[in-house]
Amino acid sequence: MEKVKLNNGIEMPVLGFGVMQIMGDECETAVLNAIEAGYRLFDTAELYGNEQAVGNAIKRSGIPREELFIATKFGSKEAGYEKTIAAFQRSLEALQLDYIDLYLIHQPFGDIFGSWRAMQYLYNEGKIKAIGVCNFLPDRLMDLIANSGFIPAVNQIEAHPYQQQIETQQFLQDNGVQIEAWSPFAEGMNDIFNNEVLAAIAAKYNKTVAQVILRWLTQRGVVAIPKSGRKERMIENISIFDFRLSDEDIQRIQTLDTKQSMYFDHRNPAIVKWMSEYGWLNS
């Protein structure tokens, strides 16, 4: 598995497995199957309601803890110093771990500065190997960096062929922040798996559209966390390191970029209110 090095020297797999909307025994089985398929990065969140299942799978797998990279997040209702400390402890207990590899602010709302201080404390105590954020637009991220003096290791954002985040990735690189893509397949929207450009490129390499998308992301240095409940899809998604897209093919994929979210606008006041009340949305 290829890896990226975070700004504190920690290495993170460039391809992982997401578990949003996979619950209970199904989630536990999915994580076990993913581990068997070769995945070592797993992304969950307290708000997903499946940290316990992820932890159960980790225990059952028999894989040494140091070989796994476990990421989780807390929502807007847990923003603030004391609430974040409590949320972290709940996640640690649910996951049944001694430490978490990557802990993330799920949305850029609420008392994020209080949370960021709590996360730095937990990081300095060795409870977290790296801390980061999700869904921070460049202005919000710069505000956090400029006013805290501590640079996030990761910003997990929407990234797929229809919202490629090329300029944002450059901004993140310039500031030492690793980009990570949630929803790399755009949840199948706009008939992405039958897109003519992607299908033609897939045929050229004798790969699937999903494999082309994941190779395109990881080849850009973007960490991706696809999800699937089917073991054959898990194997398909991780089998992307035996080919490399040409510059011409990458340019063809760039023509698909709408530069707009397929989900929501984090600057829309109604969305901000909704997320602040419920903690998260589709992430």
UniProtKB/TrEMBL annotation:
Transmembrane segments: none
Active-site residues annotated for this sequence: Y48 (proton donor)
Name of protein: Oxidoreductase, aldo/keto reductase family
CDD domains associated with the record: AKR_AKR5F1
GO molecular function: oxidoreductase activity, acting on the CH-OH group of donors, NAD or NADP as acceptor
Alphabetically ordered keywords of this record: NADP, Oxidoreductase
InterPro entries in the record: AKR, Aldo/ket_reductase_CS, NAD(P)_OxRdtase_dom_sf, NADP_OxRdtase_dom
Residue numbers binding substrate: H106
Site (Lowers pKa of active site Tyr): K73
Lineage of the species this protein comes from: Bacteria, Pseudomonadati, Bacteroidota, Bacteroidia, Marinilabiliales
Gene3D superfamilies: NADP-dependent oxidoreductase domain (3.20.20.100)
Signal peptide segment: none
Family per record: Belongs to the aldo/keto reductase family.
NADP-dependent oxidoreductase domain: residues covered: 15-256
